[in-house]
Amino acid sequence: MPLATPFYLIDETALAANLARIDELRAASGAKCVLALKAFATWSTFAQIAPHMDGSTSSSLYEVQLGREKFGGETHAYSVAYADGEIDAVIANADKIIFNSVNQLERFGDKASHLPIGLRINPGVSHSHFDLADPARPFSRLGEIDLARIESVMDRVSGLMLHCNCENDSVESFSALLDEIEARVGGLLARVDWVSLGGGILFTQPDYPLAVLAARLKAFAEKFGVQVYLEPGNTVVSNTTTLEVSVLDIIDNEKSIAIVDSAVEAHMLDLLVYRESAAIAPDAGPHRYVVAGKSCLAGDVFGEFSFPEPLAVGDRISLLDAGGYTMVKKNWFNGVGMPTIAIRRKNGSIESIRAFDYADYVASLS
Ligand SMILES: *Cc1c(COP(=O)(O)O)cnc(C)c1O
C-alpha cells in the first residue's frame, strides 16, 4: 500500500550526491565539516551522512546530546547562552566548547578547561538577504565584538568561531567577505589553532565552483596556520527532501485554490517566517492553482503554481526543499496530522521511518 500523505520524503540518492560534494571539498581544502544540527536533525539519516563529515555542531544542550549519541565524530558545543543547570551535561557531551561571549567563557571556562575552548567573535560583516538571520545586524548578540574583551581571554582559547554567511551561493561574495574578516581580525586568527567559519555557504549546489572555494579555504588555513572548520546545515540536505501532500478540496474565489492535507505554519514554517513561497517542479502548464493548507490561518498558503492537468481531490503534490529548517521546526498547530518521515532508499523503495499519531499530539502538551 502506498504511504498515506502527508509525509516528508528524504531521497538517499540525492543526499549521496550532496555528501560526495562535501567529501570533495574536505579533500581539496583540508577543512573539516561538522553538521549544524539546528538545520537538520532527522537522525535516521545520520548513518548515511556521518561517514562524509567530521562530526556535528550544536546550538543547545539537547543538540549536543543528540550529536554525541547519534552522529559521532567530533561533537562541538555552542550556544548563545548556557544556563548553570545545563553546563555540566553540555561539557560531558562535548569534544570542544565554543562560548558566545567573554562573560560565558569566564563563567564556565574553568569547568571546561580539559576541552579545547573557543570563542565566537563577531567581525561586524556578513552576507545575508534577511535582517532576521543576519549575525551582523545592528545590536547583534551573536559573538563577542569588543576587541579588548576578546584580547583579555586569548590565552584561554585555542580557537575562534565566526558565522557570517546566510544562504550565500556566490564564491566571490564569500571570498570578499573573508578578505574583510582577515583585514579586521587577522591578528587574532593568527594566534589560534583552529577557526570555524560557520555555515551558510551553499556549496552543494551543482554549479557552485567547489575548487575555487577549496583553494580559498586552503589559502586561509595556510595564511593563519589554522585548522579550518565549516558548519554546514542547510546545504547538506538541500534538494534532498520533499513534503508529499494530497489535495482534499478545491475552492474557487477568483482563483482556484487547492487545499491540501498539511499546513504551512505546522510543516513548512520557514516559508512564513521569511515570507517565501514553496516550490514544485516542473511548475508548468496551463492550469494555475493556489496551493493552501488546511489550518485556520487565513494566510496558510504554500504558493501559486502551474499544473499540466486540472487538479482533482486525491491528487498528490510534491513540495520541494523540505529538508533544512523544516522537520526541525514542525509543530502541532491546529492539531493538523504530523507528516510521517520516510526515506526513499537507493533501490527506489520508500520506507516509513517514523509515523506520528494522536498520542504524540497529546504527549506534546499537558
Ligand atoms: C545556523 C548556523 C549554522 C548553519 O547554517 P546553514 O545556513 O544551515 O549552513 C552554522 N553555524 C552557526 C553558528 C549557526 O548559527
What can you see in these coordinates?
There is one protein chain. The chain is an alpha/beta fold and 366 residues long. It has helices at residues 12-29, 46-49, 61-71, 87-93, 102-108, 147-152, 171-189, 210-224, 234-237, 264-267, 270-273, 358-363; strands spanning 7-11, 32-36, 55-57, 74-79, 96-99, 117-120, 159-161, 194-196, 227-230, 241-253, 255-260, 287-292, 301-307, 316-319, 340-344, 350-354. Strands 1, 10, 11, 12, 13, 14, 15 and 16 form an 8-stranded mixed beta sheet that branches. An 8-stranded parallel barrel has the order 2-3-4-5-6-7-8-9, surrounded by 4 helices. Helix 1 packs parallel to helix 8 (210-224) and helix 3 packs parallel to helix 4 (87-93). The longest helix is centred in the middle third of the chain and has 19 residues, at 171-189. The chain starts with 6 loop residues before the first strand and ends with a helix. The relative contact order is 0.16. Bound molecules: pyridoxal-5'-phosphate. Pyridoxal-5'-phosphate binds at residues 36, 38-39, 163, 166, 198-200, 231-235, 324.
As residue ranges, the low-confidence spans are none
Text of the CATH class of the largest domain: Alpha Beta
Measured between the Cα atoms of the first and last residue, the distance is: 35 Å
Q: What would you give as the CATH superfamily of the largest domain? A: Alanine racemase
CATH architecture of the largest domain: Alpha-Beta Barrel
For the record, the count of structural domains works out to: 2
Total DSSP E strands: 16
Overall helicity: 25-40%
Kindly provide the radius of gyration, computed on alpha-carbon positions and rounded to a whole number of angstroms.
Answer: 22 Å
Name the bound molecules: pyridoxal-5'-phosphate
Envelope shape: globular
Helical run tally: 12
CATH topology of the largest domain: TIM Barrel
